[in-house]
Amino acid sequence: MPVPQEAISELTEGFSKLLASGLFSDLVIKCGDRTWNVHCPIICPRSSFFLKAVTSGFEEASSREIELRGDEPALIDRMVRYLYSLDYDDAQLEDGKEYISKLHCNALMYALGDRYDIQGLKVLATEKLNRANYGQMYRDKKTLAELMAVIPVIYTSTVDSDRTLRDVVVELATSSTEQYSSIRKRDDFKMAVETVPQFAWDLIEKTGQFAVLDKCGHCDDDDNGRLDVSDGFCNSCGRRWYEEYY
User: Fold this and answer.
1) Phi-psi region of 238 (alpha: psi -120 to 50; beta: other; left: phi over 0)
2) Average pLDDT rounded to a whole number, residues 125-137
């Protein structure tokens, strides 16, 4: 039978108190100028990365300190808190270097889950993205800009075989005719499809439209919009117009 929510809350609240107090800690995680006093029995069974670190015979196993280089401390903090509470705060944040939107935060948390092999974190990050109501984002320029900014993050932080977040952003971009039409007019969308060819191809497969940019890459003719349903050849110059982009 399902475990009552009250019992789950009791467990996660108890774990969170252990993290906050550091009581019984047997491992230290460091990132930047921050440290977390954590517990191997809580984190190691759920992350092969941390399990290997403390059982491999390397320095980390004897020192009981693991330094995570190249990650943002604010995001590692969310990862650690997830391991104790089964949740993390995905509100927009300032990481000391650049603004990170809610959408961007969840994409980066998914990448952390992949990097440190925390499968539940990947599932939660995906759920948080799917919970958000982006169906009317074409009405909000700021939200559209955030979506365009996160596309390269998703495509460069996941392997080609991992379609989870890629499918999410393609669905967001094409969730309605109004949304797709609005997005395609944006300069940052054009930049996204030019710099991330796989995103452009995913849009083609999703919509069945060759012209994700509404114009020929050779002669710049938009053919009054008829390129959307063409066979990939420009009716003006006769060249396969989308090769300019892909």
Assistant:
1) left
2) 73
Note the pLDDT of residue 135: 55
Distance of CA 44 to the CA centre of its chain: 23
Residue 94 in tokens: 């300032």
Strand stretches in 32-122, DSSP E: 34-38, 65-67, 93-94, 99-100
Dihedral of the CA atoms 36, 40, 41, 45 (nearest 10)?
Answer: 110
Q: How many residues does the chain have?
A: 246
Which residues are paired to 35 by β-bridges?
A: 30
Which of 15-20's residues contact partners 24+ apart within 8 Å by CB, and which partners? 15/42, 15/84, 15/85, 16/81, 16/84, 16/85, 18/42, 18/84, 19/80, 19/81, 19/84
* Each residue's pLDDT tens digit, 132-168: 655 556 567 777 888 888 999 999 998 889 999 999 8
Residue 10 has pLDDT above 90, yes or no: yes
Whether 106 contacts 121, CB under 8 Å: no
Instruction: Give the position of tokens 């800690």.
Output: 25
pTM of the model: 0.80
pLDDT per residue over 72-102, tens digit each? 999 999 999 999 999 999 876 655 555 678 8
Asked if residue 80 lies in contact with residue 29, where contact means CB atoms within 8 angstroms, the answer is: yes
Residues with Cβ within 8 Å of 37's Cβ and at least 6 positions away in sequence, in order, are 19, 22, 25, 27, 28
Q: Which residues pair with 37 in a beta bridge?
A: 28
- CA Rg value for the chain: 22
